[in-house]
Automatic annotation (TrEMBL):
It comes from Shewanella salipaludis. The lineage of its organism: Bacteria, Pseudomonadati, Pseudomonadota, Gammaproteobacteria, Alteromonadales. GO terms for cellular component: cell outer membrane. Keywords: Cell outer membrane, Membrane, Signal. The keyword Membrane applies. It is found in: Cell outer membrane. It holds the Pfam family Channel_Tsx. One of its GO terms (molecular function) is nucleoside transmembrane transporter activity. SUPFAM superfamilies: Tsx-like channel. This is Nucleoside-specific channel-forming protein. Residues 1-23 form the signal peptide.
Length: 279
């Protein structure tokens, strides 16, 4: 759901599922271990950033995974775009377009509660983490090669319940430099249950970058802040899920909306349709 031309992360939405908080007793670090994996068939419409000349729609297959093992809480996914390698009038992943075929997000967090054997919970904060995030696409040294380092926590939020929150410093691996910060949050809230035990959920995420250096590049200028937010409505059973997501963008990836010679659109709304099989 969160690729190089949309995001991210993504929030990731399922990261909020990843991990029950440790109890105060840390004697058995693997007592609450678990893992999960699912495949999502996706279609996006209006994804940003996009070049109006080439289109803004594509299909993709997403392998999503996560779990908990000892001190490590993990979420990640791999996206493969334009599965049939087709050319279409509105496609932004057409063959020959120069876009990457693959995008990957890898989001390991390391429980400080478990590392130090202490219950660091206080008030609504359930567990504290050393948080990392890596974004990669298939372009070596030219595309998305970014990493984020910081602190995180599982926080109990009214109605939403446990919400993953992280504050990162952003390191650009292409330019070998630190450039600003990112706040991320993600949630997964079942809110209506059917008699057959399937349910509806409100799930989503927010990724907001700030404190970055502006860049007046004549081709693709960059701003000091920007991000995106995803609101998803999903039906879940034990084995399947169907969903619709609405995502809002504001200068996403710090790209100035319609700026420079290229004129990429980095602000607006997009729609996502998904069908999921759970393993």
């Amino acid at each position: 759901m969160k690729n190089v031309k949309s995001l991210a992360l993504a929030a990731t939405a399922v990261a909020a599922i990843s991990g029950n908080a440790f109890a105060a007793d840390r004697t058995d670090l693997h007592a609450t271990d678990y893992k999960w994996m699912q495949f999502n068939a996706m279609y996006s419409i209006g994804e940003k950033p996009d070049n109006p000349a080439s289109g803004d729609q594509h299909n993709y297959l997403e392998m999503e995974f996560g779990g908990r093992s000892g001190i490590v809480d993990l979420y990640g996914y791999v996206d493969v775009f334009n599965l049939a390698n087709e050319s279409s009038q509105h496609g932004d992943k057409n063959p020959g377009s120069g876009t990457s075929k693959i995008f990957m997000k890898f989001n390991p967090r390391f429980s400080l509660d478990a590392i130090f054997g202490k219950d660091l919970s206080v008030g609504p904060i359930q567990e504290v983490y050393f948080s990392t995030l890596f974004n990669w696409d298939g372009l070596n040294g030219e595309g998305v090669n970014s990493t984020f380092w910081g602190v995180g926590a599982d926080v109990m939020v009214p109605w939403l319940g446990k919400t993953g929150m992280n504050l990162y410093g952003y390191y650009d691996m292409n330019n070998k430099e630190w450039n600003g910060y990112q706040f991320s949050a993600n949630w997964f809230k079942p809110f209506y249950f059917f008699d057959n035990k399937s349910f509806l959920s409100f799930q989503g995420y927010i990724d907001y970058q700030f404190g970055a250096d502006a860049d007046d590049n004549m081709f693709v200028p960059k701003t000091t802040s920007g991000g995106n937010i995803f609101f998803g409505l999903y039906w879940h059973s034990d084995r399947y899920a169907l969903g619709y997501g609405l995502k809002g963008f504001k200068d996403v990836y710090l790209l100035e909306d319609k700026g420079g010679i290229v004129g990429l659109e980095s602000t607006g709304w997009s729609h996502y349709l998904s069908a999921t099989y759970k393993f």
